Amino acid sequence: MAEPLRLGRRACPPLFLSLRREEMQFVKESVIRASPERVFGFHEQPNVLSLLIPPWENARGVRPTRISELGTQAVVELRVFGPVTVRWIAQHTVYDPPHMFEDVQIKGPFRKWRHRHIVKPDPNGAMLRDEIDYVPPLGFLGCVVAPSFIQQRLQKLFDYRHEVTRHWCEER
Question: Is 100 domain-assigned?
Answer without folding.
Answer: yes
